[in-house]
Amino acid sequence: MPIDVSVSAPGRLDDHERLRLYIEGVRERAAKAVSWGPETVGIPAQPAENALLRINDVAFYANARSEIIAFADTCLNLLSLHRPRDGGGVSSGPAPMTQRCRCCMLRWPCPTVTEMAGLLK
Q1: Domain residue limits, the chain
Q2: Cα(100)–Cα(6) distance, rounded to whole angstroms?
Q3: Which residues contact 96 (CB under 8 A, 6 or more apart)?
Q4: Of the ranges 62-66, 71-75, 94-98, 101-105, which one carries the lowest mean pLDDT score?
Q5: Is 105 left (phi over 0), alpha (psi -120 to 50) or beta?
Q6: pLDDT, tens digit, for every residue of 41-85?
Q7: Lower Cβ count inside 10 Å, N or C end of the chain?
Q8: How far apart, in Å, do the first and last CA atoms of the chain sit?
Q9: Is the distance from CB of 79 to CB of 113 less than 8 angstroms?
Q10: Gyration radius of the chain over CA positions
Q11: C-alpha angle 60/61/65, rounded to 5°?
């Protein structure tokens, strides 16, 4: 079921803006978080003593903060590129003009924003 990422009523945020605020919040929380390391929190218990699993866990936790920040930056860059614009042309009736994406020029919401809007579910 596609998510309607159209412009909202006046005074309400549209899904594009809500998504941008959500990703900015994730990035801000990640930037404020303390980097995790074995000496700061401890290594999570493993069901079986497997050195490779412990090394993978340490690498995951140690890199998660910087990777989340980089991922959030990428999402914000995509959102700044993919946003609605007036489709142009003249409308012959009360229906609003078709909106298009500023980046890919597909009908709004474009597939990129529709896919990203899945975060709002």
Answers
A1: 15-88+95-120
A2: 11
A3: none
A4: 94-98
A5: left
A6: 555 565 666 666 667 777 787 788 899 999 999 999 999 999 998
A7: N
A8: 12
A9: yes
A10: 21
A11: 105
